[in-house]
Amino acid sequence: MLFIVKENHDISSLLEKIRMASASYKVVDIYGKRIVIAWPDNLVENIEDISIDAKIRVRKPYYLVSNEWKSGKTIVNVGGVEIGGSRIVVAAGPCAVEDEDILMEIAKAVKRAGASILRGGAYKPRTSPYSFQGLGEKGLKILKRVSEAVGLPVVTEVMDTRDVELVKSYADMIQIGARNSQNFTLLREVGRAKIPVLLKRGFGMTVEEWLLAAEYILSEGNGDVVLCERGIRTFEKSTRFTIDIGGMVIAKMQTHLPIAADPSHPAGNRDLVEPLALAAIVAGADMLIVEVHANPSKALSDSEQQLTVEMFEKLMKRLKAVAEAIGRSI
Ligand SMILES: [Mn+2]
């Protein structure tokens, strides 16, 4: 049960009533409101208190991410770029930050083509411990310098709770990657950090588990979360992962949070990126995050799926035409 508290009202008597009912609760300040989440519902449904503005029963295992209580879609502002409005936002850049000159070249090219956020990994979660692991803080510094020179906000991944404050000091949005999307300690930490979060769906996660992962972040008072579909693991081997467009649409129907899609990682092959990107925006994605490299064959990670700059320019033209056809813009 969600108790929405009247502005500036004392909640001590409400909390006392919840305790007397032997129920559990959590107080969260989010979207300019104070909310008391109390469970289980059957113990608290008859509670009345002067401080309650509204009492809402959410019929799902999650509360704050649900659109059953919050009217209207949430807009997440990333360094001045709004995600979740009618404009579709494209983030683009290399899989990993490798070198300042290369990143500068890519950033200028993707901005010219219409991207409004720069992506690039400084901490890389690689399947093998012997693969390139990223440049760490040196990579973050490069990202920051390029971001300021080119004028694009930055999204980059954090893998460890110990790095959250450091990454926050360089980035405009923190990405939680697919392999960490049920690392609940890390989710709580980025929730407390109060920075916009791009939450990838783990490749073994159901839609409900994905929404519950977002609930961890919101329950710490951070409402700036964008959910990102990036493909799940199925029996199909012709693609790297299976992009779950249906699951992405279901998530969008359940939540007020913006939805993104990553067409690069499920493709695993640069020729497949464009059709998956187009499918995702037709299905309602508010944001795309695409891997682009100035010289993909020389890339230190994910070289097969990174688009060339020319391919990205062509993709942006197609995206613009499709966005217009569905009443949106890029
Ligand atoms: Mn990658």
From TrEMBL:
Documented EC number(s): 2.5.1.54
Biological process terms in GO annotation: aromatic amino acid family biosynthetic process
Keyword Transferase: yes
Pfam families membership: DAHP_synth_1
A GO term, aspect molecular function: 3-deoxy-7-phosphoheptulonate synthase activity
Source superkingdom: Archaea
Keywords: Transferase
Domain DAHP synthetase I/KDSA, first and last residues per copy: 81-324
InterPro entries for this protein: Aldolase_TIM, Class-I_DAHP_synthase, DAHP1/KDSA, DAHP_syn_2
SUPFAM superfamilies assigned: Aldolase
Enzyme class: transferase
NCBIfam families for the chain: DAHP_synth_Bsub, PRK08673.1, PRK12595.1
The name this protein goes by in its record: 3-deoxy-D-arabinoheptulosonate-7-phosphate synthase
Organism: Ignisphaera aggregans (strain DSM 17230 / JCM 13409 / AQ1.S1)
